Amino acid sequence: MQAAHEFDYLRGLAEKYGHMYAVDEFNAAADNITAEQLKELRGVYAIICTGDNRARIGRWADDSFERRHKIPKREFDFAMQVSQAFLVFEYLARRGIQPFCDKEIEYAPATRKPNWETLPKELSYLIEPAEAYGIFDDVEVLKFLDNAHPKDMEMLATTAERMRLNGHLKILNKWVDQFPSDNRQEVWMVDRLVGVMSLAGLSFE
Q1: How many domains does the chain have?
Q2: What's the pTM value of the predicted model, to 2 decimals?
Q3: Would you say residue 110 lies in a domain?
Q4: Residue 164 lies in a domain
């Protein structure tokens, strides 16, 4: 029997919204939200905003990512789904729906200086877009995509296409596994870049 988890109250949120990545999916979820779903989300949101719950959830999600090779896969998946599901609050806030427009639920990792020396040479083309677009947290990336200049989208599309045509995702994943993002800003930035391309609906694998 699986032991109770500190954040079990977030499982419903994670199961319903933690598998969405595309902007269109979040927009559809927010546009078609029902009164019953809103009631459920408001209840969870109230708990998240109580005391230091928001900070503890953020630390848990960050720690789960850093220790992803040392913890059970189900624990890692749960943490990542919770992080992703939190984006639904941002989309509801944009529509002026209370209480989500009163506060932002987000994570803001500390900024560190990237060191690109370990990045495989065949992936060097990721440096420029990673430094330009791998700097956003989950909330900021949504704002960026909503107002992105065509030239930004062109660079992202070109990068994704180059990754796809060359099958570089496998090499990238191997590099990430070898150099986890704990105190490695460059790994975190590339991971965020991949997240931006995914949210933009760009295929890179």
Answers
A1: 2
A2: 0.56
A3: no
A4: yes
